Amino acid sequence: MSQDTELQRKKTSWLVAKLGALVVAMFAFGWAMIPLYDLICEVTGLGGRTGDQYTYDPAQMQPDTSRLVRVSFLANTNAGMTWEFKADRNSVRVHPGEVREVNFIVRNTSDRPMVGQAIPSLIPGNAVNFFHKTECFCFEYQLLEPGESMEMPLRFVVDPDLPPNVDAVTLSYALFDITDMALR
Amino acid sequence: MSAVIDAHHDDHDHHGPDKGIGRWLFTTNHKDIGTLYLWFSFAMFLVGGVMALIVRAELFQPGMQFVTPDFFNQMTTMHGLIMVFGAIMPAFVGLANWMIPMMIGASDMALPRMNNLSFWILPFAFAMLLSTLFMEGGAPNFGWTFYAPLSTTYGPDSTTYFIFAVHLMGASSIMGAINIIATVLNMRAPGMTLMKMPLFVWTWLITAYLLIAVMPVLAGLVTMMLFDIHFGTSFFNAAGGGDPVMFQHIFWFFGHPEVYIMILPAFGIISHIIPTFARKPLFGYDSMVYAIASIAFLSFIVWAHHMFTVGMPLAGVLFFMYATMLIAVPTGVKVFNWVATMWRGSMTFETPMLFAIAFVVLFTIGGFSGVMLAIAPADIQYHDTYFVVAHFHYVLVPGALFSLFAAAYYWLPKWCGRMYDETLGKIHFWMSFIGVNIAFFPQHFVGLAGMPRRIPDYPLQFADLNMISTVGAFVFGLSQLVFLFVVIKAIRSGEPASDRVWEGAHGLEWTVPSPAPYHTFTHPPKVPESEMHT
């Protein structure tokens, strides 16, 4: 009998150790979902997150003059953000492979210095990986004095490999107040 | 019967419970801990129920009557959290503690000290959660799903207490689950192979694995929230490069298995009660086991059906839609088996059986509205309306909760050695049955007509149905006091119960005396063929 109990105790400790390892593994998996999510978004274009700065090489990319793609711009301020924020035009038509520049205008309407950060999002998802920004104000934050305004350039090129069924993309910017975060 | 219960004990086992409060504080006895869990969950059920009645009272008429919109939101949030984590889950754990060792012929749970710990964490967790009601800024008001950034950027200061309360509940559930798995896998009496285990044990074994798989994810999620709130990280803050939609993915990766954690043990209970009162063995035992396992597996790959409106590519929508509908197949198998068990049985309708039959009927209605919600294009209209509220209350109240009532009436005579009052039990049943349908059925209609959930006010055209719903909710709420009375009356002055209690009951738990002695099966019993499930 006591030998049985001893054996059972051993079996139980081993099982509990395995289950404990499963708990730790699932906790780790919860955190691993963050890079996994980013990876899936990056590969599929879900979430509309456009990539980092792109180096444009004219030799590599021939403008495709047979196609015209309409790129529309949305400029929004997030809740609690008091700045004025708009694009200098609503949309442009571009040939894939051709570099274009659009200006966004921003003004700090408050009476204190503030820091803003624009976050881009692009639809449709299958165009996200074919929209390249060679220069964008969204790569850095903006510090504006009270009443100060600024023209911010966005320079982009649509990849000639853009899926053929896409003839219009919409690029949206949400402007966040990150003054507190920047101070920290 | 006495052939099964071994008469000779080891010396150190031969004692009853300690005296006084110490018995409950330091107990490692599975029956004591089961009792603690059950009473605790009933107390939480009443607390959460009062919150639901505050919500329903406010919705009795359009316009603002009793509470502020912010307090209304606190009530819906706390009601959800308390019912899920404080009432339904601990009640099932309590049943597992009481019944699993007796069903498999084990002397106790495998890890009795950890068992004590996993219970005694809970009062602290819920004291912490409830204390937020009295804090400046109020309790959590962002819904039980606590979506970021509502709960991070815009949450009240008390959110931190909520986070630590969830950590504690998670720790308690994980320890409870490890204990159950260890007990079931290592402590079964000789001859009880896995495919001969009672179904309640099977459902709990699988539920315990679900708990171990998803509670750590929930712990990780609330930890990320904690970092976002206090340490300047941006997991869910778009301004810092995070993504609020990711919150929903992680939450529902936990959340969908969680809803099956609350229903699988109910399936087990019903699979005991229907054969007992139909006086026939359960139809399709093996298919029941496979159905539970399939439902558990599918629960991990359907989470995004809660998120059809947040944006997904078509392929994703289709996958989650079809995977969700697939769950109807194993669930249909179970419902079929229960009905087939009753087919040509010599049925009697004692209170546990009434609750069990109501479970089958009403849970199926909840399942059907679930299939409706799974239809992605239609879900865009149903999303966040009262139709969703009606759906999940149909599966949780006449589903999970009715199974708990059924279990309480079914095993109460074994626990306290006395019968409950059958007439009062039936009054409780009919009040609950009528109340629950009056409360929740109209919510389907207001939902389809476009009434959003979690809003304290509504346009005039929803007034009549909301009034009916509130009346039903109060009938249902008050009938639970009848239940409390029935239980207390049974414990104090019920007729003595026989060992078998129910004529058609089979299983090891019915071979021990009523009330079940403090220690049962100190030596593994030989399981008689007549008590086996197949």
Short description:
The complex is a heterodimer of chains A (184) and B (534). Chain A is built from 2 helices and 9 strands; from the N terminus they run αβββββββββα.
Describe this structure in words.
- The complex is a heterodimer of chains A (184) and B (534).
- Chain A is α+β, with helices and mostly antiparallel strands and 184 residues long.
- Chain A has two domains: 1-44; 50-182, Sandwich (Ctag/Cox11 (Pfam 04442)), CATH 2.60.370.
- Chain A is built from two helices and nine strands, in the order αβββββββββα.
- Chain A has a five-stranded mixed β-sheet with strand order 3-1-9-5-7. Chain A has a four-stranded antiparallel β-sheet with strand order 2-4-8-6, with no helix packed on it.
- The longest helix of chain A has 43 residues, at 2-44.
- The termini of chain A are far apart.
- Chain B is mainly α.
- Chain B is 65% helix and 0% strand.
- Chain B has 16 helices and no strands.
- Chain B has helices spanning 21-26, 30-58, 69-104, 112-131, 159-186, 199-230, 244-261, 264-278, 285-298, 314-326, 328-342, 351-374, 376-382, 386-416, 422-448, 463-493.
- The radius of gyration of chain B is 23 Å and the shape is globular.
- Mean pLDDT of chain B is 94; it is low at 1-13.
Structural topology:
The complex is a heterodimer of chains A (184) and B (534).
Chain A: H1 2-44, E1 69-77, E2 84-87, E3 91-94, E4 99-107, E5 114-123, E6 131-136, E7 142-144, E8 149-158, E9 168-177, H2 179-183
Parallel strand pairs in A: 1-9
Antiparallel strand pairs in A: 1-3, 2-4, 4-8, 5-7, 5-9, 6-8
Chain B: H1 21-26, H2 30-58, H3 69-104, H4 112-131, H5 159-186, H6 199-230, H7 244-261, H8 264-278, H9 285-298, H10 314-326, H11 328-342, H12 351-374, H13 376-382, H14 386-416, H15 422-448, H16 463-493
Helix pairs in contact in B: 2-3, 2-4, 2-16, 3-5, 3-14, 4-5, 5-6, 6-7, 6-8, 6-9, 8-11, 8-12, 8-14, 9-11, 11-12, 12-14, 12-15, 14-15, 15-16
